[in-house]
Specification:
With 348 residues, the chain is mainly alpha-helical. The protein is built from 17 helices and 2 strands.
């Protein structure tokens, strides 16, 4: 545990600094001052993680773009798992895609999450932790959010809850509501990604995996949430709401091509006059002159024999060229003058 002590100190120090700020407005021993300190901790962490979030978005799009190629590799080497894995890794390397990049924000938050859990557990036991002295621990220990102490859990006994100046009913009602909101926000965030920002025309195992996670994550939050203190539930609910809003902004402003959100964005740009209609309606007009000039592509033999393809169009639009130098094309040329007679006599 000594290795993580610097992280405990950092988390507790950030909370104390925000608590000092909010104590200027709210009661320093109240739930608002301590609750807003936890919310501010989340906001600060998420702002620092914005570069990782951008990388996650790019990685997710690259994975979606590679789905047809990945599916082709799976079908080609479906009986050779080793070769299939080698080809997948080769594809990732060529395109610069990292499948684990989509998990970077969650992985980066995990140390702060466990550190906050450790700090709140010590607060519930009345023990000093990090940079928090005994007076701050006692203040945070008795801070209530809607009647529930921030250090209390759903699984706490009635005696332990009473020692924190609260009732078991208040704690369980507040924790259940927060767990439901936490799971619902996680479900909506994942569903929003699947229904609006994914090209549904491409059916791949990746999409099936995302659909499964859409139901698995909320269930995991609901199961593990009963063991989280109220302060940790505040932390996780806040980060879920931040993720949902951040994702809504990205999907609206820069959606994945081919997705429903991309089509909606194109319609908004057209309605605002910022995007011109595609020249699809001009194709029939442009194709009409091609039909009139089609006889020009006939061969010389067809033009000389006056085939059916020529007689219908070319004969009416362009006169047949006169033979040069008295050459015949099946009919006898008529002499134009007497000047030609000496030439004929010389030939004889």
């Amino acid at each position: 545990m000594g290795i993580l002590n610097p992280l405990y100190d950092a988390v507790s120090w950030i909370i104390v600094q925000f608590h000092s700020l909010y104590s200027l407005v709210f009661d320093k021993d109240g739930g608002l001052a301590w609750g807003l300190s936890i919310v501010s901790l989340v906001v600060l962490i998420r702002i620092c993680l914005i570069p990782l979030f951008v990388k996650q978005i790019k990685s997710t799009r690259n994975m979606q773009a590679l789905q047809p190629k990945m599916k082709a590799i799976q079908e080609r080497y479906k009986n050779d798992r080793q070769r299939q894995s080698e080809e997948m890794m080769k594809l990732y390397k060529e395109t610069g895609t990292n499948p684990l990049s989509s998990c970077l924000p969650i992985l980066a938050q995990s140390p702060f999450f466990f550190s906050l859990y450790h700090v709140l557990s010590h607060i519930a036991q009345g023990k000093q932790v990090g940079v928090m002295d005994q007076s701050l621990v006692t203040s945070a220990q008795h801070a209530h959010i809607f009647g529930a102490p921030i250090a209390a859990k759903f699984t706490d006994s009635a005696a332990k809850v009473e020692s924190l100046s609260a009732t078991l009913v208040d704690v369980r009602v507040v924790t259940v509501i927060m767990i439901v909101l936490m799971s619902a926000s996680q479900f909506y965030t994942q569903r929003q990604l699947m229904t609006k920002n994914v090209d549904m025309t491409v059916k791949t195992p990746f999409m099936q995996q995302q659909k499964m996670l859409m139901y698995v994550f909320p269930i995991m939050f609901a199961v593990f949430g009963i063991n989280f203190p109220v302060g940790v539930l505040i932390y996780w609910l806040t980060t879920n709401v931040w993720t949902m809003g951040q994702q809504m902004f990205v999907i609206r402003r820069n959606p994945t091509p081919g997705s429903l959100a991309f089509k909606q964005r194109q319609e908004r740009l057209k309605a605002a006059g910022k995007l011109k209609d595609e020249p699809a309606d001009q194709e029939p007009q442009d194709a009409a002159p091609v039909k009139r000039t089609q006889p020009k592509r006939q061969t010389k033999a067809q033009r000389q024999t006056g085939g059916p393809a020529q007689s219908g169009t070319a004969g009416s639009t362009k006169p047949k060229p006169k033979p040069a130098g008295g050459a015949t094309t099946g009919t006898k040329p008529k002499p134009s003058s007497g000047a030609d007679k000496p030439n004929l006599s010389k030939k004889k």
